[in-house]
Specification:
With about 525 residues, the chain is an alpha+beta fold. Helix content is about 20%, strand content about 30%. The protein has a 12-stranded antiparallel beta sheet with strand order 1-8-9-10-11-12-2-3-4-5-6-7, with helices on one face. Strands 13-20-21-22-23-24-14-15-16-17-18-19 form a 12-stranded antiparallel beta sheet, covered by helices on one side. It is elongated.
Length: about 525
């Protein structure tokens, strides 16, 4: 007799025929009174439920992964620990990246100044084109270190949207004294402070003072917008106690920083209140070449080889074998003392005689003499055929006795020091062990080795040709620039040696030293 199959056995049979559900639990019977649905309906319900679970799991997984896609900015909040650490590492990252392209906008409307170029934090050096309605007399090209700024003015230059030429022009550069904290000076100070060899120990404390204000995309890179003060320059003496983080506010600058602690934009105000925006192009990083006033091409200092050391040691004897040299001078001593000059030097007579002019002062010329008794200067008017300030002719011969010479025993400024050092080079022993070779270079078509050393507290560079003859002598000035004296060996005209001072002056100067490592003050011209 045929009997009906047990429903429980029928259910178990269906589960066995569907191996994909073998491990799944039997759902509870929540409605015993409701007749069971058909088999395809239950299967569709199960598949829909599984799809919903899978979708929710995927969404939860994606939400749990770190994402840097821009999101709508939420309310400002305090920095997290990781955000504070990234902000603290930003300036060190800039320094380690060495160079970036920069674009600055300082001020607004008719007071706006635009700067486009590059910053090298490791050297350090900035090279920029300056334009905009607020640029004024600073329009043109600019190079700067933290201690010196040189400009090549170009009043006719229009708005600049491209960087300056990679190979800077060699002429017409002037040393400038800029008002601290304002305009160009404030912008340059900001640029150099955005890079640092070491992180500020107080920077991690920003997690108690800085703020996160949003997320954006800059140049295709997702970034966090963080708000915190720019660290102050390092104090002369270490601070005592525990630094307290400042409270962040809307007046603090904003930093656009990516997840690798790279800065893409900075926005804030200079000390004078002028708004400033800095845009960084991190893939634009050519090698920068400083102009001569800032030290010339990049160097890789190393010790001298034996051959180079012997060549340097023979310099005094090599000069004594020469009658003398024609000289040209480029001496950036200050904003009102960008000097150019020419003349002659005699090592055998220990004399020098030059005519010097200031680039921005027309109609006057300074005559400079140096002999074994000391120095003398005279101001004379510029006559016809005297050349220009950028290419002056030599001084008049013989030296005019009625020019109102002012005599002094010691060097009066860095130009006197440079001339004095060049005259005494024929009798000053040079120690190769204290020198370093910076680089090979060229001057007047000749290959030279640029050798740097210190002599009586002066930082000097000798440009030596392969015969051991100096072709240029450079001196690091007190304003952080380099003054150059170029030498062309050859006969010296008769009358270069100035007349001796009056006997009373000679007796007054007897027994006194003729040189001083550093004069106490610069003589105003």
């Amino acid at each position: 007799m045929e009997t009906s199959p047990d429903p429980r056995r029928r259910g178990r049979g269906r589960r066995r025929r569907d191996p994909g559900l073998r491990a799944a639990p039997i759902p509870p019977d929540v409605s015993a009174a409701e007749p069971p649905g058909d088999e395809p309906g239950r299967r569709r319900t199960t598949l829909v439920a599984l799809a919903v679970v899978a979708t929710a799991s995927a969404a939860a997984l994606v939400a749990g992964l770190p994402t840097w896609a821009p999101a709508p900015a939420g309310p400002a909040r305090a920095l997290t620990g990781s955000e504070s650490e990234r902000l603290a590492a930003t300036r060190v990252t800039n320094y380690r990246d060495v160079r970036v392209g920069v674009r600055l906008v300082v001020g607004a409307d008719r007071a706006r100044t635009d700067l486009v170029g590059w910053i090298d934090w490791a050297r350090p050096l900035a090279y920029l084109a300056v334009s905009g309605p607020g640029a004024g007399a600073d329009r043109g090209l600019l190079q700067a270190t933290p201690s010196a700024v040189v400009l090549r003015p170009d009043p006719a230059a229009g708005p600049v949207s491209t960087p300056p030429p990679p190979d800077p022009p060699a002429d017409r550069w002037r040393l400038r004294d800029l008002p601290p904290g304002r305009g160009l000076a404030g912008a340059l100070d900001l640029l150099f402070r955005l890079g640092s060899r070491h992180a500020d120990p107080a920077e991690p404390l920003r997690r108690g003072g800085g703020r996160w204000v949003g997320r954006e995309t800059v140049g295709g890179e997702p970034v966090d917008v963080l708000q915190a003060a720019l660290p102050a320059p390092a104090p002369a003496a270490p601070a005592t106690g525990t630094p307290v983080p400042p409270a962040a506010g809307d007046g603090d600058p904003r930093w656009w920083v990516d997840r690798d602690s790279r800065l893409h934009r900075w926005q804030g105000r200079l000390p004078d209140g002028a708004p400033v925006t800095v845009e960084l192009t991190r893939l634009d990083r050519p090698v920068l070449r400083p102009v001569d006033a800032l030290g010339g091409r990049a160097a890789l200092p190393r010790a001298l080889t034996d051959e180079e050391g012997e060549r340097l040691a023979r310099v005094p004897a090599r000069l004594r074998a020469e009658a003398g040299a024609a000289v040209t001078v480029t001496a950036p001593l200050g904003a009102a003392a960008n000097l150019r000059g020419s003349g002659w030097l005699s090592w055998s007579a220990a004399t020098a005689y030059l005519s010097v002019a200031e680039l921005d002062t027309l109609g006057r010329r300074t005559l400079l003499r140096r002999d074994p008794t000391g120095f003398a200067r005279a101001e004379v008017p510029v006559g016809p055929g005297a050349g220009s300030a950028t290419a002056p002719t030599g001084p008049p011969l013989p030296p005019p006795s009625d020019a109102g010479w002012r005599h002094g025993v010691r060097p009066g400024d860095d130009l006197d020091l440079l001339v004095d050092t060049a005259v005494r080079a024929s009798g000053t022993p040079l120690r190769p062990g204290a020198a370093v070779r910076l680089r090979a270079d060229r001057i007047a078509g000749r290959v030279v080795d640029v050798v740097e050393l210190r002599v009586q507290g002066l930082r000097l560079r000798y440009w030596l040709d392969r015969t051991g003859l100096p072709r240029r002598l450079e001196l690091r000035t007190r304003v952080g620039a380099w003054a150059q004296l170029d030498l062309t060996p050859g006969p010296v005209p008769a009358g270069v040696a100035p007349p001796r001072p009056e006997p009373s002056a000679a007796r007054a100067s007897a027994g006194k030293p003729t040189t001083s490592p550093r004069p106490p003050a610069r003589v105003r011209r």
